Amino acid sequence: MLRVNADMSVLSVNDTIVDTVVFDFDGTLARLNIDFNHMRRAITELVSGYGVAHQDLHHKYVLEMIDEAAAILQSDSPRKVETFKEEAGRIIENIEVEAAGRGELFEGTKKLLTTLKEHSIRAGIITRNCARAVHLIFPDILSYCSAVVCRDHVRHVKPHPEQLNLALSRLDASAGRSLMIGDHPLDIETGHNAGTLSAGVLTGRFRKEDFLAAGADMVFREATDIIHLLR
Ligand SMILES: [Mg+2]
Q1: Ligand 1 center–CA 79 separation, angstroms
Q2: 115 and 151 in one domain?
């Protein structure tokens, strides 16, 4: 049960008072339509070109595959690591920016962020996407949300807590009074890693059961559902 007290400008999530909400971007506030299979193929090809057998890469997520390949190269051929990382970064950024050109912000996103601001609830955005893609799809993002932490701004992307910790510190927020919301169980893991509450949204490809299994405190149909709960 989530109630919002507009006068006090807080949200009550399972009896915990929350004054800060940090959102994931793709699938939560916007749709980028990134072709991850294409991205994976492109990176696999690059990795092979560097002499690393793609069978040696076990991670299912592309960013982690790149880190894994870089670690293998580091022991085999340290000189090549920086070039490899640059090339890999360029490939995924180009794919993301191309997808962002065809993507769109969810209809209620600006209203959601404006409403939270009106109620003095702090809001941040953290994403594994690059800043170029995020700004292409949401050019005036900083007018709506002051704490936007993209992949390029940190060393470790989520589910590592660095991005969420950085957003919380920019918002002068405490983890114990914050809620992380995203469309992927990885967002729930991120919340756990940083010590926030967490909620899933069903606007991606995961179901309510997936979020509950990941330990989410709540599951919303979509991120804007918070607005409907404002009183
Ligand atoms: Mg997402």
Answers
A1: 34
A2: yes
- Strands 10-13 and 16-18, sheet pairing: antiparallel
Q: Three-state DSSP class for 15? A: coil
Distance 88 CA to ligand 1 centre (A): 21
The CA 230 to ligand 1 mean position distance, Å, reads 24
CA of 120 to the centre of ligand 1 (A): 25
Tell whether 83 and 177 lie within a shared domain.
Answer: no
Distance 82 CA to ligand 1 centre (A): 28
The Cα–Cα gap between 14 and 161 comes to 23
pLDDT in tens, the chain (231 residues): 555 444 556 787 877 889 999 999 999 999 998 999 999 999 999 999 999 887 878 777 999 999 999 999 998 888 899 999 999 999 999 999 999 999 999 999 999 999 999 998 999 999 999 999 999 999 999 999 989 999 999 999 999 999 999 999 999 999 999 999 999 999 999 999 999 999 999 999 999 999 999 999 999 999 999 877 665
Q: Does the pTM of the predicted model rise above 0.85?
A: yes
Q: How far is the CA of 42 from the centre of ligand 1 (A)?
A: 21
Burial (CB < 10 A; 0-12, 13-18, 19+), residue 53, is exposed
CATH number at residue 214: 3.40.50.1000
